């Protein structure tokens, strides 16, 4: 998700987010990336305005984006802000003579649902945050353009290559519905634990590689009046970063695929799922959560963590941007892969990584040629570098950030973690494919963290959500291979 309020929401799909850097010869992120009542929209984007927005196509302007036309851009204004989009729009206007109407907001559903319903959507949208309109819902209603035309167009930087061939492998996967890419998850993101280098140095703590070492630090922190683990309690998306990563690392990629592919033993009957949820519940049972964290929003919890009230917090790599104003200058933010349970199939260095922050082009956009050209330019080194400068984050473009861009400490630590992980990355696809199932799993985690249910009941509820989704014939069209 992009950031602030995001995520979470019940989903947060948002921030699924980010990092890719210059230096990084990042190895692929394997596979991998709200409301109903969306109006239907036809799949092709027939527009009464087509004549006013279609110009002459050329080698440098393959879609015939028309000078003098207007582009309606809506951006989720979360952890990444929206200055990057304003910089893109200024460059677009200068080079193509197309002016943009810019909206930066966290109220994506509130502002856009009525427009989709009325058949008058914007031209391009960063559909992220807690109030994201779910991609699977928009797709089912025929409201999204198939982005294959953009991905098969020549790259701005090297016209001998298609746009899709310039991206980090696996980063298109979260935007796929039934085999079509209908959302472009633009930001390269990693998810895991975070801590303060300064606090750890002061306390003599070493970044833990095993779950036992993690618990020992939490217990030492508790003795000193500091919370062990903070999480963004009002948005259980975040604690699922910890729970699901534990399951993935314990059971390996097969445990990830079992959940994505709606296996009858995805949760109940899975040793990895049981071990992962029991490990997180141990933190609850032993009183190692930061006091009050279950009742806090993402920013409230993160701000207390910035005030050294907890040793660890779970989040995606948008965290540093989201907390810029609240983070002390000497905090020394650091990223940490989830520590290992005994007998884990993945190494400690393995991380959840991939793309987040979905950009979409509505099928009924008034300026389709302009929207397609705008997205093509998003995947150029110029615009990728503009993004990194303004948002302190990496994009899905391979080597897309100029080496002169200096990243902040937390983001730099994710770059290093991505290099250390190499090909040991994983990504759950069920939140992108099945928003209702994702919400049910989040709700179960909310009950678990509040001690209203035990791990056995959590497994039962999650399996019930999987079994319900498996009854939908459309789910057969999605497969995590």
Name the structural class: alpha/beta
Instruction: List low-confidence stretches.
Output: 1-50
State the end-to-end distance.
24 Å
Order of helices and strands: HEHEHEHHEEEHHEHHHHEHEEHHEHEHHH
Count the DSSP helices: 18
The percent range for helix content is 25-40%
Radius of gyration: 22 Å
**Major sheet attributes:** 10 strands, mixed
Overall 3D shape: globular
Instruction: Give me the count of strands.
Output: 12
Assess the beta-strand content as a share of residues: 5-15%
Mean pLDDT value: 89
Summarize the structure.
The protein is α/β, with parallel strands linked by helices.
Attribute tags:
481 residues; ten-stranded mixed beta sheet; two-stranded antiparallel sheet; 18 helices; disordered N terminus
């Amino acid at each position: 998700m992009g950031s602030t309020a995001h995520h979470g929401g019940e989903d947060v799909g948002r921030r699924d987010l980010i990092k890719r850097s210059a230096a990084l010869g990042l190895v692929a992120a394997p596979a991998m990336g709200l409301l109903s009542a969306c109006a239907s929209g036809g799949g092709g984007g027939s527009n009464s305005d087509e004549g006013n927005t279609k110009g002459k196509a050329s080698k440098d302007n393959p879609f015939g984006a028309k000078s003098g036309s207007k582009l309606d851009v809506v951006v989720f204004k979360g952890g990444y802000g929206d200055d990057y989009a304003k910089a893109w729009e200024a460059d677009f206007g200068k080079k193509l003579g197309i002016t943009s109407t810019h909206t930066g907001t966290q109220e994506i559903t509130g502002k856009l649902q009525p427009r989709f319903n009325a058949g008058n959507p914007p031209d391009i949208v960063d559909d992220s945050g807690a109030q994201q309109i779910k991609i699977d819902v928009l797709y089912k209603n025929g409201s999204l353009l198939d982005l294959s035309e953009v991905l098969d167009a020549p790259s701005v930087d090297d016209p001998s290559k298609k746009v899709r061939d310039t991206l980090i492998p696996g980063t298109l996967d979260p935007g796929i519905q039934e085999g079509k890419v209908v959302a472009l998850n633009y930001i390269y993101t990693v998810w895991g634990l975070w801590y303060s280098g300064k606090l750890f140095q002061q306390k003599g703590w070493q970044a833990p590689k095993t779950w036992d070492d993690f618990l020992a630090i939490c217990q030492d922190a508790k003795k000193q009046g500091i919370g062990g683990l903070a999480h963004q309690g009002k948005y259980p998306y975040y604690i699922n970063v910890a729970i699901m990563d534990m399951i993935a690392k314990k059971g390996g990629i097969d445990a990830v695929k079992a959940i994505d592919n709606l296996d009858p033993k995805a949760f109940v009957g899975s040793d990895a799922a049981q071990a992962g949820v029991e490990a997180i519940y141990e933190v609850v049972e032993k009183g190692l959560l930061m006091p009050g964290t279950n009742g806090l929003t993402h920013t409230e919890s993160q701000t207390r963590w910035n005030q050294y009230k907890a040793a660890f917090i779970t989040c995606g790599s948008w965290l540093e941007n989201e907390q810029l104003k609240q983070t002390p200058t000497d905090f020394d933010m650091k990223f940490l892969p989830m520590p290992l349970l005994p007998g884990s199939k993945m190494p400690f260095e393995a991380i959840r990584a991939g793309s987040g922050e979905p950009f979409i082009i509505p099928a009924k956009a008034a300026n389709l040629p302009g929207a397609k050209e705008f997205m093509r330019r998003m995947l150029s080194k110029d615009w990728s570098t503009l993004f990194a400068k303004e948002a302190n984050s990496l994009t899905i473009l391979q080597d897309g950030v100029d080496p002169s861009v200096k990243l902040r400490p937390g983001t730099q630590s994710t770059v290093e973690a991505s290099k250390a992980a190499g090909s040991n990355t994983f990504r759950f696809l069920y939140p992108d494919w099945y928003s209702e199932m994702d919400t049910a799993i989040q709700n179960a985690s909310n009950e678990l963290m509040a001690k209203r249910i035990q791990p056995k009941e959590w497994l039962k509820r999650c399996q019930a959500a999987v079994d319900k989704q498996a009854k939908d014939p459309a789910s057969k069209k999605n497969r995590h291979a």
